[in-house]
Design goal:
With 253 residues, this protein is an alpha+beta fold. The chain folds into two domains: 78 residues, Nucleic acid-binding proteins (OB fold (Dihydrolipoamide Acetyltransferase, E2P)), CATH 2.40.50.140; 166 residues, de novo design (two linked rop proteins) (Up-down Bundle). The chain has eight helices and seven strands. The strands form two sheets. The protein has a five-stranded mixed beta barrel. The chain is elongated, with a radius of gyration of 20 Å. 40% of the residues are buried.
């Protein structure tokens, strides 16, 4: 990790950019070794900039950075490793799912320069899967959201009651409840008021997405995919304590 007054190198995914002054831009990057980093790209908005186009959201970049005394580092070199945005830009469902991934990754890394390798690898894998287009974009997003929750220690309980630990959930009979505040499925005796009662197929789909069982996930009926997405979004927003704004654009796809 770069110390004050030193250069350091890392690769990462550009999460977002913000204009600064007339020609500069603040780049927020989720890096492999240094976690979330904010750095200034000087002059990148000028048409003759050497690496402006390489510092766009969705781009996997190899960076040389300078850590000065300000809270923002400085980008001194940028080489594009892979531009995921090109494959996503032409497909609205894939693009909006990708935007939601970037926003979620930033929300799950509230502290700058704290290494979060698993979250970084999840994001790279999620963007790669979106770009390849082999699966329904919303399923790829839901898998990313569930695994991000798991990495953060918030994996939903799907095999036992989130309250008492009982394996007797009666999922097959449709009487198991999914309670956000409890942390997942609850048995009949622990069920809180207002809990959702998801289909057994929806519960199985959530488990498949967590495990990466794409044969099961891809075969899920549309109604179970929709129900799963609703539960995942609600569960995510409960734990983050505020909404992921870009998710609302995905919902209508």
């Amino acid at each position: 990790m770069g110390s004050v007054g030193s250069y350091y190198r890392d690769d990462g995914i550009v999460l977002r950019t913000q204009d600064l002054g007339e020609a500069d831009r603040i780049i927020t990057v989720l890096t492999r070794r240094n976690g979330r980093v904010r750095a200034v790209g000087k002059g990148v908005r000028r048409t003759k900039s050497r690496f402006g186009a390489r510092l766009e959201p969705f781009t996997h970049v190899d960076l040389m950075l300078y850590a000065g005394r300000s809270s923002l580092d400085t980008v001194t070199q940028a080489d594009s490793l892979r531009a995921y945005g090109q494959a996503l830009a032409a497909d609205y469902p894939r693009y909006t799912s990708g935007v939601a991934m970037l926003e979620t990754a930033e929300r799950f890394t509230p502290e700058e320069k704290q290494p979060v390798l698993r979250q970084f690898l999840l994001l790279v894998g999620g963007l790669r899967a979106l770009g390849e287009g082999a699966h329904v974009p919303r399923l790829v997003l839901d898998a990313f959201l569930l695994r991000s929750l798991a990495v953060a220690g918030y994996a939903p309980a799907l095999d036992e009651c989130a309250v008492c630990g009982s394996p007797e959930l009666a999922v097959a009979s449709g009487s198991a409840a999914f309670a956000l505040a409890a942390g997942g499925l609850t048995c009949r005796s622990c069920r809180p008021a207002g809990a959702a009662t998801p289909s057994a197929h929806t519960v199985a789909l959530m488990g498949a997405l967590l495990r990466g069982d794409w044969a099961h996930a891809d075969a899920a009926a549309r109604r179970h995919q929709v129900e799963c997405s609703g539960l995942v979004a609600a569960y995510l927003q409960w734990h983050l304590e505020h909404s992921i704004r870009s998710l609302r654009h995905v919902e209508h796809v």
